[in-house]
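Now for our specimen.

. . .
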Amino acid sequence: MVSGNLFHCRKHSWPPEEYIGKATLQLLDFDSAAPPEQAWRRRLNSHANILKEFSVTFVEAIKMVRLGIRLWSYVREEASHGRKAPIDPFTRISCKPSASQGVPLGGMGSGSISRGFRGEFRQFQITPGTCEPSPVMANQFSIFISRDGGHKRYASVLAPGQHEGLGKAGDQGISSWGWNLSGQHSTYHALFPRAWTIYDGEPDPELKISCRQISPFIPHNYRDSSLPAAVFVYTLVNTGRDRAKVSLLFTWANSVGGVSHSSGDHVNEPFIGEDGVSGVLLHHKTAKGNPPVTFAVAACETQNVSVTVLPCFGLSEGSRVTAKDMWDRMVQDGQFDRENFEAGPNVPSSPGESLGAAVSASAWVEPHGKCTVAFALAWSSPKVKFLKGSSYHRRYTKFYGTSEGAAEHLVHDALMNYKRWEEDIERWQNPILEDERLPEWYKFTLFNELYFLVAGGTVWIDSNLPASDMRNGRKAEIVDVKVTEVEVNRKDNAVVKQTTTHDYLCNDDSMVNHEGKNNHSQRQATTLLDLQNDSDDVGRFLYLEGVEYVMWCTYDVHFYASFALLELFPKIELNIQRDFAKAVLSEDGRKVKFLAEGNTGIRKVRGAVPHDLGTHDPWNEMNAYNIHDTSKWKDLNPKFVLQVYRDLAATRDMSFGVDVWPAVRAAMEYMEQFDRDGDCLIENDGFPDQTYDTWTVHGISAYCGCLWLAALQAAAAMALQVGDRPFAELCKSKFLKAKQSFEEKLWNGSYFNYDSGSSSNSKSIQADQLAGQWYTASSGLPPLFDEFKVKSSLQKIYDFNVMKVKGGRMGAVNGMHPNGKVDETCMQSREIWTGVTYGVAANMILAGMEKEAFTTAEGIFTAGWSEEGYGYWFQTPEGWTIDGHFRSLIYMRPLSIWGMQWALSMPKAILEAPQINIMDRIHISPGLVGFAHNGKVVRKIANKAKCFGNSVFQCAC
């Protein structure tokens, strides 16, 4: 728990009055129009500098030349099949990344659109795995103001400055619009999932404007959080003596980003809905056979607000109604003809022709009066289609169906429900925002890092089964693998009989396993539990490692990010773990070439936790990552065991524990092959066999060895709970022997050496050396080492990896030599990883080192989010170098800041557990040697697993 000494932490506090006049704040202090005190802020005229990407050194390039050649060949081969390689460092995006991002739109898993802090809509990710980063400049809000008598008129796009690529000022396109907002008196305020843009007397000095952006990201709400919709609420305050007619305009292009606007066959259609909601539907026919998309832009008509539309205008040359015609009409009248609602759908666009739509909402604002105008945007692309796999229906279709009309219903419900959404969001956020012990920067960075769960390429499907169960012309059949019967003492203490049947949906493709024998591939394992039509079913969820590393649910990175899902959407987190549990017990014998070494192996080895759930056919073709053979990685299996146990301890969901126990045991048994000297401790194999996949490890390593120790302890505790006492005894026996070996070979008196080898960096200080201890403490298990060793190691990391790099203002560098110089063995050892830094800070909190923890994490804020930093807000990269050059923007791992929040507010299920060392309850029987390898998945679990009651360790069975 956080202690009072956090008062001594330096606070980055930006009161809103430093950006907005106090008088304006008072005028907007109603209906949530004023931004909160705790928010990330920027002025709209702030310079959005171009970001600088990292580059490898000459020595690093020489070392990776063979890998580069093989990767280049692989990227070209994938492109020849119309596919994008999951890792492609050779193809550069069309627009250079800049420090211009803001809060993204919509809920999770239905496609996303980001919105920059200056108002531009960009980063379209409607098609899974595809990101169109360039802004669509026709997508804008604009304002038209006229005072009584017409002697004062204002017309402006509500985005600052002229933009590159808008064309000549005299043409008929969008450059003819009024791009005249300076942004000098306008500010942006972000607290995900909401944002506020305040126009303090721009463009009309006598009009104060607040635009509030709201998306339905609501923890524990598995319905609304899946909706592809966002609301923009404009609050207008007239400070002048004359009443003002104000018309707000929302324009939207029929486009999903990039050049999609000109592909043809797009149709716009006006609509008048219920409750005064009216607008335009934009039906977009996507290219390359991707599922179509329908956008809905709408406003809500009230007693004081009149809504009109122009369903179609041209964004290209030769249009009947041009962008300039549309603008001129708004300047003159402030609205469109009511008859436009009766226009019906337009003739489908021709290739090369670009269409836009416009919705206008007009109102009179009395002198010193106030008015609210609400717009909404929704998009509906009900089907997810992967290039090599099945099609699925998105989660929101469970509530809105799959027809084109869903977008109209979505936009209507968004306008009707946004106030309830805000109430729920405030109820969730306020306890943290009002906690005076916490630094101000931490509060809003904590929430804003959640942007990734929307903008990180998420996919959330309705059910566990594809839209069609046909694959390659063959019908799937159910193959029985294993049945385990247990009695489960559920959270409500009701003892019920449960049968966990590991039945798999398989096609009849015959695969070759790693022993060369033919067998039916247990590809994606779909259990009968998945087939149940359970009201508690929340579907299945995918999120990318990053927009540059296009792999779903990359597991070694999910290890860090998963704290956010467990805290906010625990049912999603448990389902992801179930997916990996099934994957552990499956095998895919198809041959794969591994690019780093040039050798070949099989795609998925039974017993090994996959690196990821795939790219072009997730759940069915796993391990899209092919740089190394990850079946030989040493961190994936321990990370699986640790995550499963943490999730079990936090949720008390024993049915989950029973369901995944066979995979946990199989994962532990698989690792015994890497203990080559019989000391019960796994060894690394002289290549980067871990999440640091360019950083070679020899022998025993601090990172993987510590994870393994923690996994042995977690597996022992879990085995005790499910009634597998012999396995609990075996894990404890191994733990005691492995711990002794680990400390003897790596502890040097102040920290654990990087590895037990004799290379130049074997004694390096690795920031992540206590990752296993982090999870042990986060799960309520006994510490792996005595308090002195834990605190000494963390203090060493703080003194060297943190404070010796720009005075602690950049985060924790991954590797540091004991002489105080950065370890430059490889590009990753010299990088600062944002997510690892947050994880180290969480570990420090758990060790009672709060001051050091927040100073460590503040370095990520300073370099990434502050005004003096490099501009990585809402696109936090995997890491940066000491000179601030990034690698892999919009990355999953920084969600680990929620590991800090987990440490600060541990769930009751863990805090209330009896303070009795779980390992002390396990009495080792004589004669234990090693894990059993009898060819079966696992032994049958004991029939009675009743030790999971009101606390995690209620009894010793």
